Amino acid sequence: MLRTMALTCCLICGLADTALAQWSRPPQRLTGPQDKLFPLDAQFQLISINGRQATGDQTLRIDSSFRGSGFAGCNSWSAALYPIRGQRLAMGPVALTKKICSPAVMAEERIVLYTLHSGPIWTMDGPIVTIKSRAGTLQFRRGF
Question: pTM higher than 0.85 for the full model?
Answer without folding.
Answer: no
